[in-house]
Amino acid sequence: MAAMMAAPVAALRAWSEAAARAETAAREALAATAPLLDSLAALAAQMRAAQRLPWDATALGAFPELRARLWRKQRGAAEALLEQLGQRREELRAVRDAVGAAGSAVLRLVEERDPAELGLAAVLRRGPRCPSLADVLEGLQDVERYYRHLYLEIKLLLQRLSLDSLADVEALPQSWERILERYKEDDVVQDTLLKVSLFLENHHEVSCSPGS
Amino acid sequence: MAAKSPPDSTPRRPVLSVSARKIKDNAADWHNLMMKWERLNDNGFTTANKIVNMRISEQFQDNKLEIACDNSATEPEKPTPKYNEELDNCCAELLETLKQMTKIQMKMEKLTSTTKAICDLETFHHGAGNCKAPFFHTWPTSYFYEVCLKLSEMYKKELQLKQTIVQDIAHSADQDLMMVYLSSWLYQPYIDNSSMLLLEAMLLETGHRQC
Predict the structure, then answer these.
(1) Helix/strand/coil (H, E, C) string of B99-132?
(2) Which residues fall in a coiled-coil region (chain A) (predicted)?
């Protein structure tokens, strides 16, 4: 039993390390996204105020080209913020890819095993403190799906963004907060990490026990 | 003036003429002044932001009072505007920032006129349309003056805008206008993005920056 599980256990250990790294990277990318969205929303509010202002009726009316110049500067600042947001999106894409690759490696390894060697019973065997290999593999797929969806959310959010609809840009922090709320409730990453660590711990004990 | 100048004590560098030395120092001064201006701009923005926040919360309080007065059966009495010490301090702070920016802009104009004087001196010595070798790498002396003038004009217009903002920011009741004031202060519409390029090109030409 211990011998036939040796390869999946090693692959799961590698997955566990990759998932922990990915979780840190995702947390950092998400933390860095919120202030950028706040800045972009504040900038959109300024741009809308400039659109509404009756320039000629104010003290600023005396300044030639001011409106167009300010608009150019604001657009430039907005584009710089969008670029930074694009970098955060790419970080989340890298997280998705890393978790996907680590998960695929484990699944491929299990699929390539001879069914006689790693039978259905072994895959489904579950202990009081140990999830089955099937449970663990399901968790891996859940985590992969979690990061894939998270990446798609930010990708779609940024894709829909247009500086021509400033009211939507101004509402960005609220939209983002709603997305995050949904993901905060989902403990799939922590649950799966725990599941994998229990599985690894158990199989370490089995492989180290004298009768194994 | 040349006799008073200390001899160049760094033997590895080629000895620059007095005019070239002056242009090189001017380029360094431009860099320092522009960096100082940016710092003051950031500080000024923080102060202006506080002023706008205070004005908006004052307006909010006034609106609440007006609603309370409308609802009460007693003789409506317009609340007297109370002295806001914090707002007064912020205004004084912003004025001080503007004063320092004015000083910087004056120094920039002085640098420009010095460069113009060097150009005039060159013309006097060698005549107009001469093909004298450039002081540094490729720039003719007149190009230094053109760059100084461009930069100086940008900062001059920007300072005028800032003066208007400072005069009105604490008196305006229009929130859109206050927001435009803040945005204009922060993004400095009259200072083109090319200003940094011009500065860096000047620093590169004069040898302050290495290729």
Answers:
(1) HHHHHHHHHHHHHHHHHHHHHHHHHHHHCCCCCC
(2) none
CA geometry: angle A92, A98, A101, nearest 5 deg = 140
- pLDDT for residue A210: 46
* Record: contact A74-B177, CB cut-off 8 A: no
Structure tokens at A98: 């890393």
Name every residue whose Cβ is closer than 8 Å to that of residue B121 and which is 6 or more positions away in sequence.
B19
From B157's Cα to the closest Cα of chain A, the distance in A is: 9
Q: What residue type is assigned to position B176 of the chain?
A: D
Between the alpha carbon of residue B143 and those of residues A202, B14, B115, B140, B153, the distances in Å are 77, 22, 10, 6, 15
Q: What is the pLDDT of residue B184?
A: 98
Q: Convert the pLDDT of each residue in B99-108 to its tens digit.
A: 999 999 999 9
Residue A41 pLDDT greater than 60, yes or no: yes
Comparing C-alpha atoms, which of A154, A156, A14 is closest to residue A94? A154
- Among A99-108, A129-138, B9-18, B129-138, the range scoring the smallest mean pLDDT is B9-18
Structural contact between residues B173 and B141, judged by C-beta atoms closer than 8 angstroms: no
Write out the DSSP string of A44-94. Answer: HHHHHHHHHS-GGGSGGGGSTTHHHHHHHHHHHHHHHHHHHHHHHHHHHHH
Instruction: State the distance between the two ends of chain B, measured CA to CA, in whole angstroms.
Output: 32
Using CB atoms within 10 A of its CB, is residue A60 exposed (0-12), middle (13-18) or buried (19+)?
buried
Is B41 within 8 Å of chain A by CB?
no
Q: What is the dihedral sign for C-alpha A148, A154, A157, A163?
A: negative
Q: Sort out which chain A residues have CB atoms less than 8 A from B182's CB and list them.
A: 46
Predicted structure pTM score:
0.82
| A74–B183 CB contact, under 8 Å | yes
Close Cβ partners of A71 (under 8 Å, ≥ 6 residues apart) = A47, A50
A85 token code pair: 């947001």
Cα–Cα dist A59/A51, whole Å: 16
Task: Identify all chain A residues contacting B164, using CB atoms and an 8 Å cutoff.
Answer: 59-60, 62-63
CB proximity A49 to B under 8 Å: yes
DSSP letter for B18, please.
H
User: What CA–CA distance (Å, rounded) separates B96 from B92?
Assistant: 6
User: The tokens of B42 are what?
Assistant: 């950031």
